[in-house]
Design a protein that fits this description.
Blueprint (H helix, E strand, L loop, with lengths): L13 H15 L8 H15 L4 H10 L4 H10 L11 H16 L6 E6 L6 H13 L7 E8 L2 H9 L1 E3 L8 H7 E5 L2 E4 L1 H4 L2 E5 L5 H4 L5 E5 L9 H14 E8 L14 E4 L4 E4 L3
Parallel strand pairs: 1-2, 1-7, 2-6, 7-8
Antiparallel strand pairs: 3-5, 4-5, 8-10, 9-10
Helix pairs in contact: 2-4
């Protein structure tokens, strides 16, 4: 009996990698160095095989001309890194409730809307951390109509965020009283966040590199955009920074990751040093 043949995995050449990297960068702003070849090639091969394409070239032609964007979204979900946990870099949440929100509120009448935007949302730990901080630590929460928005380019992590089920590792930094108050144990070391918090956050898919996506957001008072722009090249960082500047209300703030610096991306913002954190502000 003749043994069944096993399909040979497609080969990604240097030229193939370069074509894909340039295309993905144009679409998302995310830049892949040659050092990421193993990571990228593995995921490209996975998609080529999943779609039944005969070669990288056949798959890439179909990707570029697809009408519904479904394959591109599969790629984005595979290529983006989503690792986070509750109360990550909590000093910025301290700054939010101790300084930034008080400045924002001082410019608004009681009952006015305050908008906070978390991008990328990843699996929801950051926007839900913001919600917990507001409920537990901002004395003026009842005086204003606070909206928490959260966005990501990855549709799978958005679905996970709305499910609201987390591992013990994700919740390890939460104070025990908050864990007990806002989560229900699910067995197997998992915890489900309360529906109150799920319903407090409005999730949406957004590509920072798509002007049409960004135009939907205006009059934002505080943006958390932490450890996203490190994956962009210099030009894409500047474009993204300027797009976020346009979404901010005058006097609005933006928080970056601890290794990121807005002064290297754009001169539009003013640096503000608060006791808890360094943040950036759109001038009034």
């Amino acid at each position: 009996m003749k043994a069944a043949s096993v399909a040979t995995p497609p080969v990604i050449s240097d030229a193939d990698f370069q074509k894909f990297a340039e295309f993905f960068h144009r679409k998302t702003g995310i830049h892949f160095e040659v050092s990421k070849r193993y990571f990228v090639d593995k995921r490209l091969i996975e998609r080529i095989q999943a779609t039944g394409a005969e070669s990288f070239r056949a798959w890439f032609v179909a990707l570029r001309f697809e009408a519904d964007g479904a394959e591109m979204q599969h790629l984005v979900n595979l290529m983006t890194v989503n690792e986070t946990y509750f109360f990550r870099e909590a000093y910025q949440f301290d700054c939010l409730v101790n300084n930034m929100l008080n400045e924002v509120a001082a410019r608004k009448a009681p009952g006015s809307r305050i908008r906070i935007w978390s991008i990328p949302s990843s699996t929801g730990e950051e926007p839900y951390s913001i919600a917990i901080y507001l409920l537990e630590r901002w004395a003026k929460i009842e005086q204003y109509d606070v909206e928490i928005l959260s966005s990501d380019i990855d549709t799978k992590v958005l679905e996970a965020a709305q499910r609201g089920v987390y591992s013990s590792r994700s919740v390890a930094q939460l104070p025990a009283p908050y864990l007990k108050k806002y989560f229900t144990p699910q067995g197997g070391g998992e915890w489900r966040i309360s529906r109150e918090l799920v319903e407090a956050v409005e999730f949406s898919r957004v590509n920072l590199s798509e002007p049409a996506d960004m135009r939907r957001f205006r009059d934002i008072d505080v943006i958390f955009c932490r450890n996203l722009l490190i994956y962009f090249d210099d030009l894409s960082r500047r474009v993204a920074a300027e797009a976020m500047f346009d979404t901010l209300a005058p006097g609005g703030f933006i928080c970056l990751g601890h290794s990121e610096s807005m002064s290297r991306m754009s001169s539009l913002f003013t640096m503000r040093r608060f006791p808890d954190a360094l943040v950036y502000q759109r001038p009034l």
